[in-house]
Every structure is written in C-alpha cells, then in structure tokens.
Amino acid sequence: KLLKSESDPLATARLIEDTDGAFEVCNGRAGVEVSLNLDAGCSGVIPGGECADRLARIYDLYRSAKPRDKASAESQYRAMAPLLTFLETSLDNLLVFGKRILARRLGLSVERALPRQPFTPPHPFGLAMSERLARQLGRL
C-alpha cells in the first residue's frame, strides 16, 4: 500500500497516475522539492535525519488549510533548499556531510561521524559549508 519514490515530482506524479492511486507514495530525496511532491500527489516525503524536524514542520504548514501557513511553508523550505541541494548533489555529500550535520545538531562528536568505507574524504570547503548549514538549523 506504500511506495517510496526517489525521483523528481513529475516522475512521481506519473507513477501515481500509472498505478491508479493504488499506493500512498512518499518521495525520498531528503525532502527536496517537498511542496512540489505534495502537489504531485505524494502522501509525504521521507527526509534525512539531519533536517527531519524542519521538514515535518514544513509538511504540516503546507497541508494546512490556511493560505498564510502554506506561504510560511514555502518560505521555510526556501531557507532549507541550499542544504538539501548540497546533500542531494551526490551520495558522498549525503553520507559524509549529512552525518556531520546530524551529529552537530544532536550535540555529538562530528569527528566520529564518518560513513563506512569507501567514501570520498571531506573537502575543507564542504566541512565549512556543512558547519554553517548545521548552525543555521540549530539543535534538535
């Protein structure tokens, strides 16, 4: 009864149509394009742990009947879009930097937050970017 999609909103809309709505569809991709996926017919999104709290709030606001809430959801998503885009650029980014961001938000040691081998060692610019994005999100 539930399908997890890992594609863009257009492909997800086609999937929902092609299966005649037989499934509740949730799109992954760390929550990228959350509002477009909901408009495409998704029941929800499956975010990464590093920002699940923020995306849950965005989801609730977007599903609200109040136009002001929907506008707030869009604004909050726009603020998170750089992080989600950065993480979804590659699997290495998602694993290496996503784990660091989650560790930082949980108050854990980021030095130990590395994925299992093999992975591309983090670049100093990526480390600085992930620290800045984690600070912007705040603690969980």
Distance between the termini: 31 Å
Order of helical and strand elements:
EHEHEHHHH
- Please give the order of strands in the largest beta sheet: 1-2-3
**How would you sum up the global shape?**
globular
Number of strands: 3
Q: Which strand-content bin applies to the residues?
A: 5-15%
Low-confidence stretches: none
Characterization of this structure:
- Helix 3 (52-63) packs antiparallel against helix 4 and helix 5 packs across helix 6 (124-137).
- This protein has a 3-stranded parallel sheet with strand order 1-2-3.
- The model has no long low-confidence stretch (mean pLDDT 91).
- With 140 residues, it is mainly alpha-helical.
- Helix 1 (9-18) links the parallel strand 1 (2-5) and strand 2 (24-27).
- 30% of the residues are buried.
- Helices cover 57% and strands 7% of the residues.
- It has helices spanning 9-18, 34-39, 52-63, 67-88, 91-106, 124-137; strands at 2-5, 24-27, 44-45.
